[in-house]
Amino acid sequence: MNKVRDIDPIVGVLVAESGCVLEDLDNHVQQFGYIMPVDLGAQKKCMLGGNVSTNAGGLRYLRYGSMHGNVLGLEVVLPDGRVLDTLFTLKKDASGYDIKQLFIGAEGTLGVVTAVSISLAPSPKASQVAVLGLSSFSQIQRAFVLARQDLSEIVSAFEFWEKRCNEIVVEFEGYQSPLSGAHEFYVLVETRGSCMRHDAEKMDTFLKTIRDEGVIEDAKTFNELKAIEDVWLFRSQMANAHNKSGCMYVYDFSLPSKYQFDLLVATKSHMSSLNLYGSEDSPVKDITIFGHIGDQNIHLQVIARSFGGTVEQALEPWIYEWVGSHNGSVAAEHGLGAHKGKFLKYSKSPTVIGTMKSIKQLLDPRGVMNPGKHVSCA
Amino acid sequence: MNKVRDIDPIVGVLVAESGCVLEDLDNHVQQFGYIMPVDLGAQKKCMLGGNVSTNAGGLRYLRYGSMHGNVLGLEVVLPDGRVLDTLFTLKKDASGYDIKQLFIGAEGTLGVVTAVSISLAPSPKASQVAVLGLSSFSQIQRAFVLARQDLSEIVSAFEFWEKRCNEIVVEFEGYQSPLSGAHEFYVLVETRGSCMRHDAEKMDTFLKTIRDEGVIEDAKTFNELKAIEDVWLFRSQMANAHNKSGCMYVYDFSLPSKYQFDLLVATKSHMSSLNLYGSEDSPVKDITIFGHIGDQNIHLQVIARSFGGTVEQALEPWIYEWVGSHNGSVAAEHGLGAHKGKFLKYSKSPTVIGTMKSIKQLLDPRGVMNPGKHVSCA
User: Which residues form the FAD-binding PCMH-type domain (chains A, B) (predicted)?
Assistant: First the structure.
């Protein structure tokens, strides 16, 4: 199941089987002037069917949008063996319920996705990156608002991480920091457009604006392909570096903008109040956040000296309760899997979970698809 | 139910009640630097709940995408009176089945949408329009491919209509044609960006490319607000003008790019073979198409001298069969309503329709929501 079945080169629609590797598809469609509308750190290995079934988000969601918007059709084998064929290649379709949407993010619990029709994005002709150094989280948000104004249609990523994340990547991966000085926060802003000269001018305007407003402490631009790749490598090794730095509890949440930074403050405060964090020999060494500003998705890491015990008990379910009570999602882009179904109740109401379960019962009455996972354990 | 409940000005998310008028919301969010991600000819009257329930497409789908991508959450009153609250404001959410999607395009048959959370688009700082005159439909498609290359991220609409449509608007609305000469086809290409100087330069490059390649016969650009509005008015009066020109049968289809023009050819040929079209006193006066190239959505008009009789019998269900057999959708952006449910079978398989009906039965077992419409008559 790794064949490209069809491509519409005029409007940019690909039909491919679910076993196709994302990067292979990206290379294939570039000859027609397109790119895949999703890219992840795992793109060399992850497959299209998995991207759909986990509702993959990724680094450039801000620009290219969600699987729910980009997937145009699916071929799904239902639990009873029938094939549900919605493999249309049409962008506009208002004929009946959009049932393919149920399978996006269902993690295989309703059927097996065997082929996907997906809308492609035009291949950019120009790309550049700037790394910013900032002193506060609110300055990151201000920089994002100004980027939407000055860079507008060419912004393709707006990533942030904090000082300790930067130190951890330098220490455990051996990479050089993209900025020479130390800052409380860092931002990676990437543009993708069709004219390098225009894009560079827009970036200059943006950097001048945020400098003049006192939003940043430092900024450095990267225009060469190798330099851009190096900056992205620094960013993409963040999770690995944390993993090497100790025993990592890692969380993937979405939160409304106004609560994003509070999560870090609350977690530090909670763990300190239990004497688990804050002094040199505390069971928890580090608590950090990084993430994607434009789509409200943040990754929180709690680095302990050992797994289990009081640290784990202090973290869960407390952290899911906190996220749920601040209108967040307990699974932003990595799904529920076997572990997080039981925490779904903190961010979805009984009516919503009940409706999900009734749909599971309707489509898979014998419970044979990916049993015991996802909403089955909610 | 016409209140704005909340706005996240940093990432651009609006929560509003379903009775809010689209244009009012657009005006409201502009103070925060955003626009609504959908715009329709009916924006002065249509309401947000209706936009969601009909899965509205509109003029700039090409740029801003679908309701399925932009709607982040819904508040829905279920047939049994319970409130299904998925009114989240989060762009990334992979926690369970995305059940709100079922209500997008359901035309009120599964529940009543009372509030909507929707992702906004950054407000453009610059806009311009060019009207092209072309000699063939394949030249329109070639111009679209080149626009995706040269105008890329700033293209916001790519509309086409044919010679007879142009004549009908001139004759029945009294508007002046945007081009002085007559052409087999016309295209309206609009850009929206953040720098007028850059956008004008990109438009010049695009026009030079399509002139040099011999893709167009004529082109005229419009930069002043009033002139842009006039061109859009010409385009938006197309359906009205056709309606004034005779007894209009109007169809709203999506078709793969390669079959779009064939629909017109096939319809003319079919009606001619039945002696209903082609001579001066034929029962059918005109058969025309116009539409949105980038999203495969075309509107076909058959203008008869009187309603009913042999013309209607010749058209339906023949035209739905033709669209279904060419992998098209029988309802692109105007939904199924009371009339088109029975034609759903031409573009969706029995398994797909059966699954839709089982979902209707699950959520509305007593059949009290918008009875006899939509999939209920499929």
Answer: 1-123
- A330·B95 Cβ contact <8 A: yes
Q: Which CATH number, 3.60.40.10, 3.30.465.10, 3.90.550.10, 3.40.50.150, labels domain A4-122?
A: 3.30.465.10
Å between A116 CA and nearest CA of chain B: 15
In DSSP notation, B298-352 reads: EEEEEEESSSSHHHHHHHTTHHHHHHHHTT-BS-SSS--TTTSGGGGGGTS-HHH
Cα separation, B50 vs B53, in Å, equals 5
- The answer to whether B332 contacts A92, with C-beta atoms less than 8 Å apart, is yes
What residues of A are in contact with residue B33 (Cβ under 8 Å)? 145, 148-149
Segment A233-246 shows an average pLDDT of 96
What number of other Cβ atoms are within 10 A of residue A288's Cβ? 23
Q: Which one-letter amino acid corresponds to residue A146?
A: L
pLDDT of res. B378: 86
| Helix, coil or strand: residue A158 | strand
Was domain B246-346 assigned CATH 3.30.70.2740? yes
Measured between alpha carbons, how far is A50 from A70 in angstroms, rounded to an integer? 15
- Cβ contacts (< 8 Å) between A358 and chain B: which residues? 362
- Rounded-to-integer distance, Cα B230 and Cα B216, Å: 22
| Interchain CB distance below 8 Å, A351 and B102 | no
State which residue of chain A sits closest to B340, comparing Cα positions.
A95
Using CB atoms, which residue from B144, B193, B328 is nearest to A10? B144
AA letter at B283: P
Taking CB atoms and an 8 Å limit, are A194 and B150 in contact across chains?
Answer: yes
- What are A293's two structure tokens? 């500003």
Question: β-strands B34-35, B121-122: how paired?
Answer: antiparallel
- Among all chains, which residue has been given the structure tokens 């940019």? A12
Strand order of the β-sheet with B155-162 is B218-222, B126-134, B185-193, B155-162, B284-292, B297-304, B247-254
| Chain B interface, best mutation among A30, A59, A77, A97, by max B CB count within 10 A | A97
Within chain A, which residue ranges are assigned CATH 3.30.70.2740? Answer: 246-346
Which runs of consecutive H residues, i.e. helices, occur in chain B?
Answer: 22-30, 48-53, 61-64, 67-70, 137-150, 163-173, 196-212, 225-236, 238-245, 260-273, 309-315, 318-325, 350-363
Model pLDDT for residues B90-112, shown as the tens digit of each residue: 999 999 999 999 999 999 999 99
Angle among Cα A56, B63, B94 to the nearest 5 degrees reads: 20
Residue of A nearest to B66 (CA): A69
Which residues on chain B are in Cβ contact (under 8 Å) with A254? 90-93
Q: Complex ipTM, two decimals?
A: 0.96
Contacts of B376 (CB under 8 A, 6+ apart): B109, B341, B360, B367, B370
Residue type, B78: L
The full DSSP string for B241-272 is HHHHHSEEEEEEEE--GGGHHHHHHHHHHHHH
Nearest CA to CA, how far is A25 from chain B (Å)? 20
CA distance B200 to B149: 15
d(CA A163, CA A44): 29
Q: Which residues of B touch A144 (CB under 8 A)?
A: 10-11
Beta bridge partners of A277: A284
Residue B122: its H or E element: strand B121-122
Give A251-308 pLDDT, tens digit per residue: 999 999 999 999 999 999 999 999 999 999 999 999 999 999 988 999 999 999 999 8
Chain A residues with CB-CB distance to B144 below 8 A: 10-11
Residue A67 has pLDDT above 90, yes or no: yes
pLDDT band at A97; cut points 50, 70, 90: very high
